[in-house]
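Continuing the series of single-chain predictions for the mutant panel. This is the parent chain; the variants come on the following pages.
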Amino acid sequence: MTDVAQPPRPPEPAAVGLDLSGNPLPLYAAAPSDPLGHSPLRRPGSIRRTMTVEVDWPGEDAVHGRFQGRARDIYTPVDGDDPVLIAQDAITGHFADRRTIADVAAIPPRADVASLAGERAGSNLRTAIDRVLHREKQEGAPLYLLLDDLAGASLVCMWGWARWHPGYLQEQAAVLEQAAGAGFTVASMEGVCIGFRPGSSALLHKPGQGTPNSTQVVPLPNPADPAGWHAFALDGDFGNFRRARLIDIWREDGLIHVDALFQDTSSLPGTAMREAIHEYRLRATADGATGRLLTLDATPGTLPHAECPAAMVNMAVVLGTPMEDLRATVLDRLKRTAGCTHLNDMIRSLAEAPVLAAKLPA
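Parent structure:
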């Protein structure tokens, strides 16, 4: 029997310069470099979730990183009294080969979390997490968000390693070029997201020849609100990477309101400052009764490439989705060049907003 040739898959809209509605994608002269600054002050009558996944390399070995994650939910009373702790979780562990989990433990202890050892941080890990922590996913527990974010943190953290070991990217480029021949480019990244869509400036250079855009940033905790963040696991004058999230939730005029921040940073040699490569602020509203997403607005702070912020024009395709379904809907409607990996994860993290909103006093 002769195999029937499959017709070629049509190009994704972004590959021909279009958004999902068929309109021309916006073009930007340069990557965003407008840091978001300190976190906003807590609102009276709101719940705040903060989360960090931090990676360092105690053995000065790029392969065997250590990760520490912390997440906390607090309620700020309407009268402005001290915040009330609602929930908190933590994880610790190590990577075996940059992205494969060698070991992982939860605090408070959860024996089943250890079964995630051997999983590679990515979509397969998320499937395993859903199996092990299905109840926590349904309940919007901080532990679920911590483990879900290992996929992105394990990928971006090597940028942090490279801030302390400048020769790392050149070494990796040399290894790849030797394996692929003199014609090596970063074409293997083409199509993974809107920032790496065909024709993107991000595809023009080999790793190690030029670096993505990044900016120095002030600390996320607001000096006027010392209770606004949980204590970070890592800080100081040594190499470490930090992925941080903040989600503020309150009810007003029959709506659920969300104000969220996302940031990827690295410490820097010889300074107490940190440098960011990814930053977004996201504001959203949802129907207070149904939880359906009504509005969504994103502001980029720092992004690595000029093509990255074009992802914001496609966010409208998830409007009307029940917030609790966003983790799956975003991956379906904003995959590959339709979305930005980091903006997608921000929108996905809103899935727990209705659960948190339900904990607000009437």
